[in-house]
Amino acid sequence: MSQSPVMERRSPDAGVEGHGPAETAFIRIDGARKVFTQRSGGAVPVLDNVDLAIAENEFVSFIGRSGCGKTTLLNMIAGLEDVSAGRIAIAGKVVTGPGQGQGVVFQQHALFPWLTAVDNVAFGFHKSGLAKAERRRRALDLLALVGLEAAAGRYPREMSGGMQQRVSIARALALDPQILLMDEPFGALDELTRIELQQELLRIWEARRKTIVFVTHSISEALMLSDRIVLLAPNPGRIKRIFPVDLPRPRLRTDPGFNALYQAIWNELST
Ligand SMILES: Nc1ncnc2c1ncn2[C@@H]1O[C@H](COP(=O)(O)OP(=O)(O)OP(=O)(O)O)[C@@H](O)[C@H]1O
């Protein structure tokens, strides 16, 4: 049986903790620190000395206790939060703000309630300069990619949570970003829908060759999806350990290797 590209894909720096090798770094985080200033004038250190190199087309998940800075780190990669010290660069270019070209897209949960599925996706093209008919045609293609062409005319209130997530993923893909940032996208879904969407996301990742940075609270989800799992610890947020996941895809929860990694991550999280 021939292996799919996803099955052949390996962590580019398996076994290496902290930095990945410089030649494979696509997203490079060097000594990143984040301090939030409170209204009272006090300073709260949230992330301290984060070093991480993510390769092109890599699927990396952040996991860690609530408040350890996962969302803040994702926001910093997106340029939505500035870096108090250190730097973040994408393809060698330092991130100084959001929306630098089409490179990075933050998948947002919320759809516009007054727009149909196809119009929500077409909104992803609103800065593209394409004619309306072309935006609609491309939006329909993306809906087909996420298996929702039949629901093109539905409003968000007429769709399940899983369908809404699919629409939101299609919208995020509209500008064909190189990097997709996803913050607990499947957290609110029932277990079955969640597993379906994980499979869907892997299929899209394989077909479209994206670099994905994904935040989750679920060890199983991180193990199902990721090339590497970055475990953050709180107070202040920092990288505690990086787990390369060298299991072939599609992954099985019953695989002894899966269970061994699950246990190792669980132990690290709970100490
Ligand atoms: N704008 C802000 N001003 C001050 N503190 C903030 C701000 N945003 C986040 N924080 C604090 O920074 C810390 C990290 O928050 P963040 O949301 O990044 O954590 P998280 O790991 O994503 O948490 P969760 O798993 O609960 O989503 C928290 O203590 C939070 O209260």
TrEMBL record:
Record bears the keyword DNA damage: no
Q: Where is the ABC transporter domain?
A: 27-259
Q: Which domain of life is it from?
A: Bacteria
MF (Gene Ontology)? ATP binding
Q: Would the keyword ATP-binding be found if you checked this record's keyword annotation?
A: yes
Keywords from UniProt, A to Z, are:
ATP-binding, Nucleotide-binding, Transport
SUPFAM superfamilies named among the record's database cross-references: P-loop containing nucleoside triphosphate hydrolases
Region ranges (Disordered): 1-20
Question: Known Gene3D superfamilies for this protein?
Answer: P-loop containing nucleotide triphosphate hydrolases
For this chain, the family text in UniProt reads: Belongs to the ABC transporter superfamily.
Q: What is this protein called?
A: Nitrate ABC transporter ATP-binding protein
Q: Which organism is it from?
A: Shinella yambaruensis
